[in-house]
């Protein structure tokens, strides 16, 4: 009943029902709160509350406002949605001078400690007096007494505090106190913090809060009393043990306020073993009842345990996995529930070394987390220098943005940071491919290349400063942050195995190198769904040959370069076929947006102006000028290249066949899927397909070996999606390249959008999500739906996959599952996420 009673109230009522020791109380509903907001009138509600107080008196044998055996209460806020710390709670309500005097006869210290607490809270929360005023008085008194901690106050000091406090707050009689407190808690729904919190968390403003009025139990009655917070399992690593902290002789707010440092819960075992055992029992019982890990607030009054709150506990990704799997094994939840409980996107964090978030970190800047993992190294501004210095020390490469000319430096760096760029920028894509941590789009850092300085908020950092980057969070940290090893726990292995029982989509990998392919298999890939041959060329020693091919002035020159590349490719493919043995290896034929492979025209020009060019450079400049394009993303790339220069793709399919045959002869089972990129019109496929088939058939004939292969097309242009029926007739498979499809559907340049306007769009909610991270279902998704429907109609057997960045993102995978995509393909480190997300999608629609 949390909508009516608020979460805290509902949980208290439920705990009391199942026999957990909860101090008696009653709840004013959220409905009453909303009524009050409408009418502004509290009288009717208060009349009812008074009746409830009478019942509470009967139940406890105490009297509200009575001098002997007085009933004191807490007045606690509690909304239907969790808003931790946003609203107000008042403790020890119902005290007056006379009552305190009476109480003091039995226990003077306790009486005045409780009173000064009440006056302060009432003053701050109900009357609205600044907290600093009270703190000033407290500090003065502590100095006078020569003490540090609240619990060290002498009785006289406490009495003085009360006197001083009363000079700034008027304490009315108990009934009036209650009236004012209820009103204050209602109104705390609309305090600035709470409104702001709801705004940033996109929570509704019209729910209102419940008010819990509950008999006080006292943790400040001496060293056999106390208060604390426990989790029923360890929220950091998921271990099945209670985890938390407590304070002796204290009330609840002492822990949260940070005034005193609490001690680990294990110490309670020594101090009060019986209470500790009972706490453990209660924790188990609550966990079984709510079927999830709980976060519990408790108070001990003279060795008697009371539970004051329970809720589902927040936990790290690692703990979430262990708890879900353990709970299945303990028979508390079933496998499906376990699968649904883990945030699929969070799995990526687990596979890399990570910054230890519990440590004190000096975070100097934040960017977008482009490639996960943490790296530590000294600052470096140039790829040449990175290459050189990396022999001796660890390097973090800082660039405004990166280009293909930086590769040799990137591969030698421990981490990469770019000032500009988004999740699909050159730096981001290359780093992810290489498994190097990377942060992009770091707004508040400037690079002064001349002076070799990094300027962060006016602070200057040089080449000898050590930096830690966290590609999982996007944090840039000054100094060497502590890292923690993570990796595949046995629980994660188990959970992933379960996902395979439920998911319908296959999970394949985007992998271009043997290293990635092996990683992918280790993480559970069922094949390679995208092997980008141009990425195989990005290695420093191959780039010149690719340039030679691109810049060739005649077919003869081009053939010469192609021949060199062919040998390299055959070797690459043999290795990949062997690793993927028996699983599909999708090889995408060359798709080089020219600017990713050529030196920048502008840079050569700059060099020319500065110091002139030698003959070789002059020639390069002319060549680059000849082939360069105004808009290379929409340029002469993909299948367009092969239609004008068929020899390029012919070389590639020949290399594939040769490699497959070689692997087969050695006893492996190669399954090549050959993929054509950047198709916009079926005629493009028709123009080249026969030529490729012929070339392959000839090789098979010569070698006397037959290889079964498939041929397919990328769907990455709107026109291809809209005519997918025609394309499907020429294909065994199609695969959505959603990076380019998003770029061309929105007309947003992948290279420029992020820094220029996309970030602004997202911050200002023009767009809810970054369409390059999460599929834009209404636009790009609609094109996908049309394509799938048409393709399946034209070719029933067609295999449909997705292979953009979205293929490893949980929400996008769910969408793909719902529109009939057969397989997703993503970078190796995202495979666990994809497996889990695919299972969640399948379970979600059952
Ligand atoms: P929050 O929502 O900010 O956690 P709570 O209403 O839970 O606020 O109150 C904070 C703390 O006050 C509790 O954790 C508990 O320690 C103390 N408290 C609340 N009600 C009582 C009570 N009836 N007896 C003793 N302590 C209480
Ligand atoms: Mg609480
Ligand atoms: Mg593409």
Can you describe what's shown?
- By secondary structure, this protein is α/β, with parallel strands linked by helices.
- The chain contains 35 helices and 30 strands.
- The strands form six sheets. An eight-stranded mixed β-sheet has the order 11-21-20-13-14-15-16-12.
- Helix 19 crosses helix 35.
- The model has no long low-confidence stretch (mean pLDDT 92).
- It binds adenosine-5'-diphosphate (ADP) and magnesium ion (2 copies).
- Adenosine-5'-diphosphate binds next to strand 2, strand 3, strand 4, strand 8 and strand 9.
- The site of adenosine-5'-diphosphate (ADP) has 17 residues, from strand 2, strand 3, strand 4, strand 8 and strand 9.
Structure summarized in a few sentences:
This protein has an eight-stranded mixed β-sheet with strand order 11-21-20-13-14-15-16-12. It has an eight-stranded parallel beta barrel with strand order 23-24-25-26-27-28-29-30, surrounded by five helices. It has a five-stranded antiparallel β-sheet with strand order 7-6-5-8-9.
Quickly list its features.
single chain; 846 residues; alpha/beta; eight-stranded mixed sheet; 35 helices; 30 strands; binds adenosine-5'-diphosphate; binds magnesium ion
